Amino acid sequence: MAQVELGQLYQDGKLVSKDLPEAYKWLSLPADGSVFDFPSNLAKTYKSQLLLKMSSAEIAEGNRRLAAYANNPGNDTALPEPAFVAHIKLNGISGAPPRALAIINGKTVAAGKSATIKVDARAVTIQCLAIKASAATITVEGVEGARELRLP
Question: Mind spelling out the 3-state secondary structure of the chain?
Answer without folding.
Answer: CHHHHHHHHHHHCCCCCCCHHHHHHHHHCHHHCCCCCHHHHHHHHHHHHHHCCCCHHHHHHHHHHHHHHHHCCCCCCCCCCCHHHHHCCEEEEECCCCCCEEEECCEEEECCCEEEEEECCEEEEEEEEEECCCEEEEEECCCCCEEEEECC
